[in-house]
DNA sequence: GTGAAAGCGCTAACAG
DNA sequence: CTGTTAGCGCTTTCAC
C-alpha cells in the first residue's frame, strides 16, 4: 500500500535521523575517506532505508556542472539520425552524463530557441547537427564556454570540433561504380536542402564524372523538392522523387535517356524505381541506380539497391568522445573527422541479383 | 575576435552594474508588476547588453521544479518511436519544458538505471515506453511523486495514465481483410518480444479468425526470433523474417500452403515477400500479406504493401498532454486511451495495383 | 573523524 | 516600488 508523494528525502533527513551533521552524511555518501567506517555504514543503511536519491539540481548548482550534454538534431525520423541518437545516448549515459534532446526540424528558428535552452540549462557541452543556414546563435553558445561538436554538417566559421561522413567520397564511389558498369548518361537526384552534405555529394558526383572524362551539364544535377519543414514528416517521402522522376523521364533528352541515376538518399531511389517501372525501363538492364544511406529495406527490395552505407553509430560515438575530451582537455585545436562510408553493391547496379547465402550483415553500423 | 569562456553573468552582475539589489533585478526580469517601468527597462537593457541568461539550475532548485520531462524509450530506430520522439519533443518544448532522453533498448537493466536518472534529475514527469518485463522500479518513481504516462505498452499494475494504439483492432482488421479476400489458411508472424502490443495483435488475429468461423492451430501463430537486445540494431531486420519464412515455406503443411500472412511489422513483410518470391509464389495471387506500421517504404514496394498505419504523432502528443494535465490537476483516476490505427489497403492484398493518381497522403500521422 | 560556516544563483517572504 | 533576510539541497573550506 503505497503512500502518496512524500516530500523527497534529503541529506538532512539522514543527518537528523542519525544525529549527525549534514556535512558528514554528504561525505559518507560521497565515498570520501574522511569518515569512520561505522558512520559510513550507518549513513548508507539509513539512506537505503528511506530511499534517498541525491538531488542533482543542488549538486550541479554548487559543482557548476549539470553533468548534462545537449543533443540538437534535425529529424529523428531520418534513420541515420535515429541511429545517431541511439549511439549518442548510449555513450553519453555510459560516461555518467544525461542527455537533453532538442529537435530542430531543419528550422533556424527552432535552432535558435534550442541554443537558448542549452544556455539556460547550463549543459556542459552539446552535440549538434546544425541547420547551417545561420550560425550566430552557435557562436554565442560557444563563447559562453559550452563546447560544441558538430555532427554530419560542419560550421567551419566557428572552429569547433566536427565529425561527419565523407559524403563526397561515397558519392564519388557510387558514381564511379555506375560508370564502371557502363553507364554514360548519368543523372544525380539530390535533396534540395542548402546543406554541405548535399553539396559534398554533388562534388563527388562531378569529380567522378570528370575523372572518367565525362561532361556534366547543369540538368544532370537535379534537386528534388522536399517537405523539409513539415515538422512531423518523415525525412523524405519516396513520393516526391517519384513525381519528380516521372516528369524527368517524360522530358526530351537530346542525348538519349539517362542510363544511370545517383540518388542522394534511399527514399529517392524508391520513388525512382517506381517511375522507371512504369515506363518499362529495366533495372539494371536499361538503367542502373544507386541510393544513399542503406536503409533497412534497401537490401530487401525486389531489385536490391546498391547504396552507400553510413557509419551512424561510429559517428555518434566519436562525437561524444570528442566532446568529453574537450571538456577535460580545454584548448586544443579543433579536430575534424570524416568517417568513410561504404558502397554496398547490389542488384540495382548489376551486383548479386538476389540475396546470396552469404549473410547480409546488419552490422553495428548499418543504415 | 571572441574572448574565451567568460564566467557566466548572473543577476548580481546586473544588480551591481545598476546599483540595485539582486532581488529587484530578479523581479524586473520576471515581469512582476512590482517594479517601476524605468527600473525594468534599465535592467532589461543591461541584461541584454551583457547577454544574461537565467540559470535554470538555481531557479529549479528554489522553485522545486526543473521544468523537465523525461522520455524513456526502447528504440529510436523503430520508425514509430522515431516519430513519437519528434512529436513528444515538439509538444514538450511548446509547453516550455525540456526533454531528457533515455534509451532502454528493451533491457530491464537499462530501464532501472533510467529510473535512477529520472529520480536524480528530479524531472517533473515522464513519458515511458516500458520494457514491461518488470516494473518495481517504476513504482518507486511514481511513489516519489513523479507522474508517469505509459505509451504504447501499459503497466496496469501501477494505475498510471496510458495512451497507446489499439493494436488488437488493427490486427483484427488486417486479418478480416485477408479473410474477406478469400484467404483461409492464414499465418501470423509476430515479434517474439514479451510485450502487450504483440499479445494484442495475436488476440486480434484469433478473434478475426473465430468471427469468420476459422480454427487457429498453434503453428498458425509464429514468433520470429529477433535481435532485440542488440543495442544499436535497427528495430528488426527483414533478414530474420526472411530466413524464418524460408523454413516455414519448406515445411510440410498438411492443410495446404498458407494463402495469407499477417505480420507484426513491415520488416517482417519485407523478408516474407522475398521468401515468397523465391518460391515463385505470387502476391497477392497465391498469397496475400499484410504488414504493420506503414513504414515509409511500404507504399513503394514493387508490390505495395497493405499495412496498418499507426498514429504515432497523435499518440505522442496525447501522452504529453495527459502528463501535463496530471502535473496540474493532481489526483484524478488514471486515464487509458487507445488510438485507432488505420488499415491501408494496397496491392499485397489485391488492393489498387499501383500508385493511382490519388496522392498517397504522407499525413502528419504516418508510419 | 566530525561539525560549523559559507555559498552556488535564484526566488519567496517580509519590511520599509 | 525597493531592499533585506532567508532558504532551496548540496559541497567545500576550515576549525575542532
Automatic annotation (TrEMBL), chains A, B:
Domain HTH lacI-type positions: 9-63
SMART domains xref list: HTH_LACI
Key words, A-Z: DNA-binding, Transcription, Transcription regulation
Domain of life, per lineage: Bacteria
Cited InterPro entries: HTH_LacI, LacI/GalR-like_sensor, Lambda_DNA-bd_dom_sf, Peripla_BP_I
Gene Ontology MF: a single term: DNA-binding transcription factor activity
Region Disordered, annotated ranges: 348-367
The keyword ATP-binding is annotated on this UniProt entry: no
PROSITE patterns for this protein: HTH_LACI_2
Entry's transmembrane regions: none
Biased composition (Polar residues): 356-367
Pfam families noted in UniProt: LacI (PF00356), Peripla_BP_3 (PF13377)
Protein name, as recorded: LacI family transcriptional regulator
Species this protein is from: Kribbella sindirgiensis
Amino acid at each position: 500500500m503505497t503512500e502518496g508523494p512524500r516530500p523527497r528525502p534529503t541529506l538532512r533527513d539522514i543527518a537528523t535521523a542519525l544525529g549527525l551533521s549534514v556535512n558528514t552524511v554528504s561525505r559518507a555518501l560521497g565515498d570520501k575517506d574522511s569518515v569512520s567506517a561505522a558512520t559510513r555504514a550507518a549513513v548508507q543503511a539509513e539512506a537505503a532505508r528511506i530511499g534517498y536519491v541525491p538531488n542533482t539540481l543542488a549538486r550541479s548548482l554548487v559543482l557548476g556542472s549539470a553533468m548534462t550534454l545537449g543533443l540538437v538534431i534535425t529529424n529523428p525520423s531520418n534513420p541515420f539520425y535515429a541511429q545517431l541518437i541511439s549511439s549518442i545516448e548510449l555513450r553519453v549515459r555510459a560516461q555518467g552524463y544525461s542527455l537533453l534532446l532538442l529537435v530542430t526540424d531543419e528550422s533556424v528558428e527552432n535552432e535558435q530557441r534550442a541554443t537558448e535552452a542549452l544556455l539556460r540549462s547550463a549543459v556542459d557541452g552539446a552535440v549538434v547537427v546544425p541547420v547551417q543556414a545561420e550560425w550566430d546563435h552557435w557562436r554565442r553558445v560557444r563563447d559562453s564556454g559550452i563546447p560544441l561538436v558538430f555532427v554530419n554538417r560542419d560550421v567551419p566559421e566557428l572552429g569547433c570540433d566536427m565529425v561527419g561522413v565523407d559524403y563526397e567520397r561515397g558519392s564519388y564511389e557510387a558514381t564511379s561504380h555506375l560508370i564502371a558498369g557502363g553507364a554514360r548518361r548519368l543523372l544525380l537526384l539530390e535533396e534540395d536542402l542548402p546543406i554541405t552534405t548535399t553539396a559534398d555529394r554533388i562534388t563527388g558526383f562531378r569529380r567522378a564524372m570528370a575523372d572518367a572524362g565525362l561532361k556534366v551539364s547543369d540538368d544532370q544535377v537535379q534537386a528534388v523538392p522536399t517537405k523539409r519543414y513539415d515538422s512531423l514528416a518523415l525525412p523524405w517521402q519516396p513520393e516526391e522523387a517519384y513525381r519528380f522522376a516521372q516528369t524527368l523521364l517524360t522530358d526530351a533528352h537530346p542525348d538519349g535517356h539517362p542510363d544511370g541515376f545517383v540518388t542522394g538518399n534511399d527514399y529517392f531511389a524508391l520513388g525512382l524505381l517506381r517511375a522507371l517501372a512504369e515506363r518499362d525501363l529495366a533495372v539494371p538492364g536499361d538503367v542502373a541506380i544507386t541510393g544513399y544511406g542503406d536503409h533497412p529495406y534497401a537490401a530487401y527490395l525486389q531489385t536490391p539497391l546498391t547504396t552507400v552505407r553510413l557509419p551512424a553509430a561510429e559517428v555518434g560515438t566519436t562525437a561524444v568522445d570528442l566532446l568529453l575530451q574537450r571538456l577535460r582537455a580545454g584548448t586544443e585545436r579543433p579536430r575534424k573527422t570524416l568517417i568513410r562510408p561504404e558502397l554496398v553493391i547490389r542488384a540495382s547496379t548489376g551486383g548479386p541479383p538476389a540475396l546470396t547465402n552469404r549473410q547480409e550483415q546488419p552490422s553495428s553500423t548499418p543504415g
